Amino acid sequence: MLHDRPDAAASANSLRRVVLASFIGTAIEWYDFFLYGTAAALVFNRLFFPTLDPFSGTLASFATYAVGFFARPVGGVVFGHFGDRLGRKSMLVTTLMLMGTATFLIGVLPTYDQIGVAAPVLLAVLRFVQGFGVGGEWGGAVLMVVEHGHHRRRGLNASWIQAGVPAGLLLANAVFILFSLLSDAAFISWGWRVPFLLGIALLAVGLFIRLQVFESPLFAKVLERKQQAAVPLLAVLKRHPGNIVLAIGARLAENASFYVFSVFVLTYGTQHLEMRRSTILNCVLIASAVQFFTIPLFGLLSDVVGRRPVYLGGAVSLAAFAFPYFWLVDTGDPLLVGLATIVSLVIVAAMYGPQAAFFSELFGTDVRYTGASIGYQLASPLAGGLAPLISVSLLEWAGGQSWPVAVYLIVLSIITLVSVWLAAETHTSHLGEPGKTP
Predict the structure, then answer these.
(1) For residues 69 and 346, what is the distance between their CA atoms, to the nearest angstrom?
(2) Quick one: which of 41, 66, 410, 412 could link to 385 by a disulfide (CB 3.0–4.6 Å)?
(3) DSSP string covering 44-70, please?
(4) Separation of CA 207 from chain center
(5) CB 285 within 8 A of CB 173
C-alpha cells in the first residue's frame, strides 16, 4: 500500500513550504471571489441594475453572484480531470491565473449607464470565469498538502487551506472598508474598482510562490507507474458514488450558513436594519479574523478525536444558534451584531476545519482530485450560490422578518447531520492506492 509519507522530492521541498504556498495562493483566490460578494451586496445593484427597484436590483445582483457558484462544479470536473491525469501543481497555476485576470477585468468593466445591458452580461461572464477557476483550485491546493504530509496531521495541515477562505474574506472586506471611507459619490464612481484592480498584483505574488513547489509525491508515483484513470469522472462515479453524495450533503449547511453570515447579512443589516455599511463590514472582518485561528484548531481536533465528531458538533451548534443569531442581529446593536457574527463563523469553522482532510480521505489517489472537487463543488450552487438569493426572497416573503431564514439554516443542518452520520470515519486511514477505497 502507498503510505502517505513524503519521498525525496517532498523532503527537498518541505511540507511547511507546501502548506504556506497552498495557503497563500488559496487566500488570494478567495480574496478575488469574495470581493464580488461584497460588491454585489453593496454597490452592483446600483451600477449594473439601476432600472430595477431596490429589491429587484439586489436580487439581480445576487443572481450574477450565484453564477460563480454554478460555474464551480464545472471547474471542479474539468480541473479535476486534468489534475488526476497530468498533476496537481499545473492546475493550481492555471486556476490562479484565471481568477486574477477575471477579477482585474471586473475592475475595468463599464457600468450599465455606459454600455447598457451589455454591462450586466459581461459581469455575469466574468463571474462565471471566477467560479470556474475557484472550482478547480480547492481540490488541487488541498491535495498538494494532504498528499505530502503524514496521516496523523492531515486534518491540521489541510485546515490551513481552509483558513485561506477567512483570510481572503478578511482581506477583501478590509480593502472594501478602506475605500468605504470615501464619499458615497467617489466610492460609486471609482472607489469600488480599486480592490478588483489590486487582484493583478496579488496574482503575481501567488504565481511566484506556487511555482516554487514540487508535484505531490503520491501523485508523482501514480504518474511514474502510469496508473492514472482513463476518465477520472467515470471512475469516481463508478467506485465512490455514495461518498460523493455524502460529501455534498455534508457541505450544504456549512456552505450556505457561511454566505448567510458573511454576505446576506450585509444586505440585511444595511437595508432592513438601517445600520452603517462600515459597521457590518467591521463585524464580518473581526469574525473572519477569529475564524482564521479557529479553523486550524478544529482541524487539529479532528486529528485527535476524528472528523465526524467535530463536524457533527458544528452542525448541531448551527441548528441551535440559527434563531439566536437573528435575535442578536435584529437588535441593531453593533456589539451584539459582532458577537452573533463571531459565534456564527466559529460554528462554521467546526465544520470547515476537518472538511478538507475528510473529503480527500474518501477517494483513491488516481481519482482524488475529481472526487473531492465534485463532492465539495456540487454543493456550492445548491448552498452558497443560492443562500443569499433564498434568504432575500424569504425575507421579502415574511415582510422583513428573519425567522424563515433561521428555519432554512436548520433544515440544511439536519441534512448535513444525516450525511456526516452515514459517512465513514477516516482520520486514521492511510491514503489508498489507485483503484482502491482508502
Answers:
(1) 23
(2) 66
(3) HHHHH-TTS-HHHHHHHHHHHHHHHHH
(4) 20
(5) yes
- What mean pLDDT, rounded, does the chain reach? 85
* DSSP letter assigned to residue 382: I
Contact 142, 2 (CB under 8 A): no
User: CB-based contacts of 54: which residues, under 8 Å, 6+ apart?
Assistant: 45, 271
Q: Read off the pLDDT band of 97 (50, 70, 90).
A: confident
CA 155 to chain centre: 17
Average pLDDT over residues 312-322: 97
CA–CA separation, 251 and 223 (whole Å): 31
Cα–Cα distance measured from residue 118 to residue 150, given in angstroms and rounded to the nearest whole number: 51
Q: Which residue from 106, 71, 77, 101 is spatially nearest to 91, judged by alpha carbons?
A: 77
Buried b (16+ CB within 10 A) or exposed e, 1-18: ebebebeeebeebebebb
Alpha helices in 213-333 (DSSP H): 217-225, 232-239, 241-259, 265-267, 277-305, 307-329
Return the beta strands (E) in 99-173 as ranges.
none
Query: What is the rounded CA–CA span in Å between residue 218 and residue 10?
Result: 10
Give the distance, in angstroms, between the CA of residue 58 and the centroid of all CA atoms in the same chain. Answer: 22
What span, in angstroms and rounded, lies between the C-alpha atoms of 366 and 35? 34
